[in-house]
């Protein structure tokens, strides 16, 4: 506080001295030697300075009055207050030195810590840069792996779609083949039934013809060629009453007639009967190479010939 008062008093004295210097009279000679515009500027500048000094003097006066009133209110002796202020200033300087020394120590410690920490910070920054670069590489690899995975999944999906389409086509083709095979099998079954029916009819015709042949052989009283009995099926139901119904004169007439008409059954007819028997016995249902007729047509013609022969015999 004492130092502040001293500085305020010094500033006030300096201001008063400047005011005294400014207020000194200026000679008429000097006034007449200066131009009017310079004098006007000087006067205006002087007035500004005078106003500033007045305001400063007012502030100094206010401070002095405030300090005097404060000291008077506290009942302090000016000399004692000056000593106290000086002692406080000395203590403040000591504290300032201590604070400055502490600050210096702290600055040295901070500088030393920074000196030691800077390499670590540089190392940490270098490692951070390396980690950042490694992270970027990993992200790039991850992106590439994800892209490859997406492409592989797309290709796998396309392959699965192609396989499913191929399986569908193969399944449709198999179904069509099964359908065609079933239709063909049904047709073959129908043809087999028809063939069985035709075979039954041919078997009936063959049995009927064999019956006629057996009757013819019975009427002639002997076999026309060897092995005929073996070729005649054992299941033939030959008529047993017809020979018994013939009377003795009829038998004699039949022998005479057969003796007269034996030349009717020529060797050619006997060969046709043998050939027909051979074809039918061997289950050959093709055409006769000599007559260009099927067994059924051959049997029909043979039946007609037999009937004509029987009629002539009768």
Automatic annotation (TrEMBL):
Gene Ontology CC terms: kinetochore
Coiled coil: 121-205
InterPro entries: Zwint-1
Protein name per the record: ZW10 interactor
Region (Disordered): 236-261
One Pfam family recorded for the sequence: Zwint
Keyword rRNA processing included in the entry's annotation: no
Keywords: Coiled coil
Entry superkingdom: Eukaryota
């Amino acid at each position: 506080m004492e130092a502040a008062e001293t500085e305020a008093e010094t500033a006030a004295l300096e201001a008063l001295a400047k005011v005294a210097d400014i207020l000194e009279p200026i000679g008429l000679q000097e006034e007449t030697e200066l131009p009017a515009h310079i004098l006007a500027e000087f006067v205006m500048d002087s007035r500004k300075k005078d106003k500033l000094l007045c305001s400063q003097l007012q502030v100094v006066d206010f401070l002095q009055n405030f300090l005097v009133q404060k000291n008077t209110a506290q009942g302090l002796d000016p000399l004692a207050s000056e000593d106290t202020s000086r002692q406080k200033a000395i203590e403040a300087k000591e504290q300032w030195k201590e604070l400055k020394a502490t600050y210096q120590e702290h600055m040295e410690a901070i500088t030393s810590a920074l000196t030691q920490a800077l390499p670590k910070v540089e190392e940490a920054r270098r490692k951070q840069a390396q980690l950042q670069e490694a992270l970027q590489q990993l992200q790039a690899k991850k992106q590439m792996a994800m892209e490859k995975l997406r492409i592989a999944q797309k290709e796998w999906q396309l392959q699965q779609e192609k396989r499913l389409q191929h399986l569908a086509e193969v399944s449709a083709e198999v179904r069509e083949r099964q359908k065609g095979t079933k239709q063909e099998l049904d047709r073959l079954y129908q043809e087999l039934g028809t063939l069985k029916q035709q075979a039954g009819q041919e078997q009936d015709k063959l049995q009927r013809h064999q019956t006629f042949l057996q009757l013819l052989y019975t009427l002639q009283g002997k076999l026309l060629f060897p092995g005929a009995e073996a070729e005649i099926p054992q299941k033939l139901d030959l008529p047993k009453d017809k020979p018994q119904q013939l009377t003795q004169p009829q038998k004699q007439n039949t022998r005479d007639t057969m003796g007269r008409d034996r030349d009717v059954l020529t060797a050619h007819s006997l060969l046709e009967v043998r050939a027909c028997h051979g074809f039918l016995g061997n289950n050959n249902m093709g055409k006769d190479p000599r007559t260009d007729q099927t067994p059924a047509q051959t049997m029909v013609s043979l039946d007609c010939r037999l009937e004509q022969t029987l009629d002539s015999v009768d």
